[in-house]
Structure formats: C-alpha cells, structure tokens
# Entry
Amino acid sequence: MKIYVDSANIESIKRVMDLCPVAGVTTNPTILSREKRNPWESLYNIRRLIGDAIELHTQVVSQKTEDMVEEAQFIVKRLGKNTFIKVPVSFEGFKAIRKMKSLGLNVTATAVFTPMQALVASLCGATYLAPYVNRVDMISGDGVSLVQNIQSLLEKQGSKAEVLAASFKSVEQILRVALTGAKCITASPSLWLEVLRHPLTDHAIQGFTTDFEKLTAPGKTLATTVK
Ligand code: G3P
# Structure
C-alpha cells in the first residue's frame, strides 16, 4: 500500500515523512485555504520539501473544461512533471480529464461517490480515482463498500487505474479500507500519527526502560554497559 499525506502544512507533512515512506502529498482548495497564505507559497514549499520523485496532487479550481485544462497546464509548468491534476468528476470534469490525458498530463479524478463515476473517469484517462470514504459514511452510506465496489469493478473491467481512497476521519476507516486491498490511501497527518501510535506501546517501553535501569543505572543502554 502507498501512503499519501492529505495536507498543505509543511511541518505536519515533514513529521509523517520522517516516520514512514510517503508516496505523495494530496491537496485541494480547502486544504490550501487552511494555511492562510498564498496557495502558490504552500505548493512551492511542498514541492521543495518532497523533491521531484514524490507525487504532488493539486486540484484545479476552474469549473469549465477549457479553463480546467489551462489551469492544469499552468500547475504542471510550475510544480513539475510528477504532479497529478485533481479533477472533480463533474460533467465538465470528465471532458477535462479526456483532454488532459490527450495532452499527456497525469490526472487524479476526485470527489468520486459511485463506482460508475470511477470507472468512466478511468476510461477518460485518470490514473488515480479518489472516492471520499468519510463523506459517504456521513450520509449513512458505506464508504468501505464504495472502495470495495470500485476496486472490483476496475478489476473486472481490466482497468489499470488505481484507487486513491480519501476523506478519512478515523483509524478504523483506514484499516477497513486497507483490508479491502486498496493500494493508495490519503489521510491527514494527524490521522497517520494516530495510526502509528498506541498507549500500550509507550507503556511497554516505559517498563523496559525502568527494568533495565534497575539492572544497570539511570540513562544506561547496552551501548554504555559494555564490560
Ligand atoms: O483528498 C480529499 C479529501 O481531503 C476530502 O476529505 O475530510 O474534506 O472529506 P474531507
């Protein structure tokens, strides 16, 4: 599975990157707005932090196909080839995905809420498809089943597009989506930290340290107790 960080906050992205391998950073206009600065400042900072080898997913704000395509070209010129243009799957969005594909741009279809939207976006040329798990759960739907159904539809139809599951609010949702076999998950930095953290792990470490210090002396390690 590939880990993506859904954030435009440099310190938080860095924190996750220090802890585990990150395949990409995903942003959208809402995420950029949280940083309360010029969006290009945030995007340049992210690209500088992650380098060219890590994917950066940036969403177009335009609503009309031609404007989306123009905006996408503008974005890629500034953020480099390994940039994926996020396009919401509106009617204009589907047309834009086709056009972007023909221009050789990398596309992530976003705001996906049904398996058929995902399949058609993949036929239009999207590399990644981003279903919104928590937003489906919030309307009494089943976000995990959505991911499962998209995956099985893509498989049955021989599509090579990948699911990049998005919109998570709990560790449980991430686990359940990972168990479906989803290969890419994007979540906020705080949620990734929650995934990695467990109070019993901290408790166990505390016990090991106390016992070792009783045996030796405070602050000692195996490296400093050689006979
Ligand atoms: O990447 C899309 C994602 O950020 C949407 O998540 O939390 O706004 O539902 P959320």
